[in-house]
Design a protein that fits this description.
Layout lengths: L1 H24 L3 H8 L4 H42 L13 E3 L2 H16 L1 H4 L4 E3 L6 E8 L2 E4 L4 E4 L3 E8 L1 H4 L3 H6 L11 E14 L10 E12 L7 E12 L9 H50 L5 H5 L4 H24 L6 H17 L1 H5 L7 H35 L9 H12 L4 H6 L6 H43 L5 H7 L4 H4 L25
Antiparallel strand pairs: 1-9, 2-7, 3-6, 3-7, 4-5, 7-8, 8-9
Helix pairs in contact: 1-8, 3-8, 3-11, 8-10, 10-11, 13-14, 13-16
Length: 540
């Protein structure tokens, strides 16, 4: 009998200690400080990290903006320099077009002549890659064949052949240039010509970064001009493509110490950001590990005392999704900061990868602020509504997506030949999504070509049915699902949330011991939650 009494007493002591640990785990940072004087390091670190990560992103964005503007302005300059008759506006997906054989010859020789006199023409800091590189011209055509459209006869070998010629900068200034330009290579047989591709590489230096107190970058522009005659429709489309590669300047001397000092300050700031994120990563990982241990204690004790397992929803209460989000954000920030430091030191040029990492991490950092607003009942509605409506919204989107895909494929195959917004699947999907949001409706109706009355009538039936179905029914049901979840949460906040095993286990445990010390934290604990809210919901 004495042994049973000791066992029951030991079980009661374990239960009391477990309830105190559970109650403490679900407290907010201010309550934890008032209960055990535990300084909320994670909260302070997250606030500091928000300011630092945002500042870092702004600095990188301003630097990246200079890179983007330099690329875009050079591409526009290349089009005006090398494309004969370029008007400054691209025609759909190509830059310009020609319609006669003479225009084709003039455009090709115009590129060669402009490349020859580039240093005397260009306003920018451009130059050839090196003397051995040059202007590479390749023509692709069918091997042989004859064509007599008047007699409706065709005899052609569909296998293709490619012939290339290289014009170096030195050769373009001598007598050899005239011999190469007058060779049989430039005698084009347009009835079997598929395309002519002119490629050349230029280098340039961006000096505008000096005004922003940054070291200049060296650029390599791989330009390609394509004369596309695949359709043989009497219209040759001219495409201009430029791939820009940022390279490390091999030998540079800048006689101003301000630029180098500014670079060192930014590198030191990035290093401090990495240390802050590393500390945040360690603290959040530690909290997840401690929460997992606490969950295991609760599950084992519940099974021992009540002889049943804890439900899945109560287990998820211990999985803090905000900590997982912070950990992902910290990892991305650390990697992005390292890349940014390498870019700043001109050792790497991965601007796109660094932008994705820093941008996404900053997004997660700001989203994580909602966690601390969630400690207050007034601001917690958004989180709870999203959490309650997400499963129903995902199931609803799966069903609506099937209908959306059906309309996408149908519009592409039927209206594609008669409407420019339905020419490919990606454009069709974007057009239908804009119609769901009420954008560009009249233009979509008006731009359909009336060459076929049957297709015109079908387009009206197609568009009217899609707009009516998605705007008046599917979109309304989508909003109704979220509204229903919001009403449910508001009702729970007034009458109380459903009680689970975890809530019932902590219901009878008094937290008076935690309420005796009312000392407030000087900066963040001035705002206290009402005691009546404590048993409303466990906020993870």
């Amino acid at each position: 009998c004495g042994r049973n009494t000791m066992t029951q007493s030991d079980l009661d002591l374990r239960e009391t200690a477990l309830k105190e640990d559970l109650k403490f785990y679900f407290m907010n940072p201010c309550e934890k400080y008032r209960a055990r004087h535990q300084i909320p390091w994670k909260l302070a670190l997250q606030i500091l990290k928000i300011l630092m990560v945002t500042t870092q992103l702004v600095f990188f964005g301003l630097s990246n903006q200079l890179v983007v503007s330099f690329k875009e302005e050079n591409i526009v300059a290349f089009k005006h320099i090398f494309l004969k008759g370029y008007s400054g506006t691209d025609e759909d997906d190509y830059s310009c077009s020609i319609y006669t054989q003479q225009d084709a010859y003039d455009s090709i020789f115009y590129v060669i002549n402009q490349y020859r006199h580039l240093k005397n023409i260009s306003l920018g800091t451009l130059g050839y890659e090196h003397e051995e590189s040059g202007l590479k011209i390749c023509k692709q055509q069918y091997k042989r064949g004859t064509m007599l459209p008047s007699n409706d006869t065709l005899n052609i070998d569909v296998s293709t052949e490619t012939e290339c010629i290289l014009l170096k900068p030195k050769e373009l200034t001598g007598k050899k240039a005239e011999l190469k330009l007058n060779s049989s290579f430039f005698n084009l047989e347009f009835y079997r010509l598929i395309q002519v591709e002119i490629s050349f590489k230029l280098k340039g230096i961006a000096l505008q970064t000096i005004h922003a107190r940054e070291l200049p970058d060296c650029y390599a522009f791989q330009n390609t001009i394509t004369f596309n005659n695949r359709a043989h429709s009497g219209k040759i489309k001219i495409y201009f493509d430029s791939d820009t590669d940022i390279q490390e300047c091999k030998d540079w001397h800048i006689f101003n110490s301000v630029l180098q000092k500014n670079t060192q300050y930014i590198l030191a700031f990035d290093g401090f950001v990495i240390l802050s994120c590393l500390a945040s990563l360690i603290l959040c990982t530690r909290s997840i590990v401690l929460a997992w241990r606490l969950q295991k204690r609760f599950v084992d004790f519940f099974l021992e005392k009540y002889k049943r397992c804890v439900c899945y929803s109560d287990r998820l209460e211990f999985l803090n999704g905000w900590y997982v989000l912070v950990i992902i954000s910290d990892v991305m920030t650390i990697i992005g900061s390292i890349l940014k430091m390498e870019i700043k030191a001109k050792n790497l040029t991965s601007y796109d990868v660094c932008s994705i990492l820093l941008g996404t991490s900053t997004l997660f950092v700001w989203v994580g602020v909602i966690r601390y607003l969630g400690y207050f009942q007034t601001y917690n509605v958004l989180i709870l509504t999203m959490q309650a409506s997400l499963p129903k919204v995902l199931r609803f989107c799966c069903c609506a997506g099937m209908i959306y895909l059906g309309y996408t494929f149908c519009g592409w195959i039927v209206l594609g030949p008669y409407h420019e917004k339905f020419e490919d699947l990606n454009t069709v999907a974007e057009c239908l999504f804009s119609l769901v949001n009420g954008d560009d409706m009249f233009a979509t109706f008006a731009q359909i070509q009336q060459k076929s009355s049957l297709v015109w009538m079908f387009s009206r039936l197609y568009l009217y049915s899609f707009i009516s179905l998605f705007i008046y029914m599917i979109l309304s049901l989508f909003i109704a699902l979220i509204t229903d979840s919001y009403d449910t949460i508001k009702k729970y906040q007034q009458s109380g949330f459903p009680v689970t095993d975890l809530h019932e286990f902590l219901k009878d445990h008094s937290s008076a011991g935690y309420r005796k010390d009312r000392t407030s934290f000087p900066f963040i604990c001035c705002c206290r939650r009402q005691q009546s809210d404590d048993n409303l919901i466990l906020i993870n």
